Amino acid sequence: MSKTAGTKKKIYEAALRLFALKGYKATTMREIGKEVGIRQSAIYNHFKNKEAILDEIIDNLAKSNLINIFEDKEPKEIYKKGKALLKQISNMFKLISYNTETDTLFRFMMQELFNNERLRVFYNEEFYQKNVKKLSVVFFLMMQDEMIEATDPLLLANEFFAPLFFYQLQIVRLKADNKSTAAAATLFEKHTDFFWDKIRIKEKNSTLF
Amino acid sequence: MSKTAGTKKKIYEAALRLFALKGYKATTMREIGKEVGIRQSAIYNHFKNKEAILDEIIDNLAKSNLINIFEDKEPKEIYKKGKALLKQISNMFKLISYNTETDTLFRFMMQELFNNERLRVFYNEEFYQKNVKKLSVVFFLMMQDEMIEATDPLLLANEFFAPLFFYQLQIVRLKADNKSTAAAATLFEKHTDFFWDKIRIKEKNSTLF
DNA sequence: GTCTATACAGAGATAGAC
DNA sequence: GTCTATCTCTGTATAGAC
């Protein structure tokens, strides 16, 4: 039983890696088997068919760290941290693109986004909406507390989220060609600095001089 | 000869549409032929093989409107337009995601980004670098002219570009599920308003009241 | 230039021995 | 649970008639 579960996990992980690398359609059962060290036919002892592997991967995305940029903390517990919180979130995005496990998940998601409706539902609800909504609550609370200037919190959330996503995509793309990601990586921090500086309420004294 | 060119074009367009819809690997020569109204084997009178169609599509991307967000104008000719210029660029992104031709090109690009190195080169050089560099020249000139506050022009260019790309991706994704894109579409304008307001040099008088 | 026919390879999946 | 063997289907590509 333990050995079975071990093989199943190996199949799952090999499949995920290959799906992320070259896409679901382009990976064959034979390749997956080869990676695991078994014959292609043996996979069917663990998964009903190829699609069942894909489905299980998508099922597990919701439990992964790919989407958990808030580390399960609630907005009202953390909004007072102000800029430090934004730095922390921005750093989570950076970590996702550098950690081998989450970077694979991210690449898998982008690979299959247009080919799988369930994946798009996941992307929309768990990856995008959930985080942007949480972010907009954070910004709303910051406004109430007069930490940042009053404006549309949902817009702010989108404007903060979008560059982080984009820079993440850049990193993963650059890594696909084994190119340097150094310049792109600095943008996470610069974005947060720039963004916070633009939304925070400035002291009257220190406006320009 | 004219009829030949006509069929070739039909094949090209059917292939592009299908590649964008379900990916290169998942589209078959039979499907392409069916869309055109000929047998699969007849395609080989116009293209050497399946990959040749893909290559030709990628070759033509550089000539397409997908990347031409500046409408061939040089930064120094247009930077004085200030916010109006940013609005214009932002609107180009919006148009790309709504125009059937460019929206197909964009979806094709995102579909195959991780599966094709030549496409990644195109994305990086023509779609990303070229536009961001042009944008940073625009911002640099605006700074010199004291229209906007002095800061890193390249950062500004990235910060302006990233949300536009992200909102574009959102639209194309939503369209894939036949969902409403209304809310996402408003973000193009809101982004520009927000962004300009944050970078422009404010009159001392009209700071807060 | 398009058709039918066919070759050939690769893929997913199942059967049955061990 | 994994193996070999095999079935079946699908896909790319070519040959040759019209």
What layout of secondary structure does this protein have?
The structure is a homodimer of 209-residue chains.
Chain A: H1 2-22, H2 29-36, H3 50-61, H4 75-78, H5 83-98, H6 100-112, H7 117-144, H8 153-176, H9 182-199
Helix pairs in contact in A: 1-2, 1-3, 1-6, 5-6, 5-8, 5-9, 7-8, 8-9
Chain A binds a DNA duplex (18 and 18 nucleotides) through α1.
Give me a quick take on this structure.
Two copies of one chain form a homodimer. Chain A has 209 residues and is mostly helical.
**Terminal residue distance of chain A:** 71 Å
Shape label of chain A: elongated
Assembly form of the protein:
homodimer
Helix and strand sequence of chain A: HHHHHHHHH
* CATH structural architecture of the largest domain in chain A: Orthogonal Bundle
CATH topology of the largest domain in chain A: Tetracycline Repressor, domain 2
Query: How helix-rich are the residues of chain A, as a percent range?
Result: 55-70%
Mind telling me the C-alpha Rg of chain A?
21 Å
- Tell me the strand percentage band of chain A: under 5%
Most residues in contact: chain pair = A-B, 39 and 39 residues
CATH class of the largest domain in chain A: Mainly Alpha
The number of distinct β-strands of chain A equals 0
Would you identify the CATH H-level superfamily of the largest domain in chain A?
Tetracycline Repressor, domain 2
Sheet with most strands of chain A: none
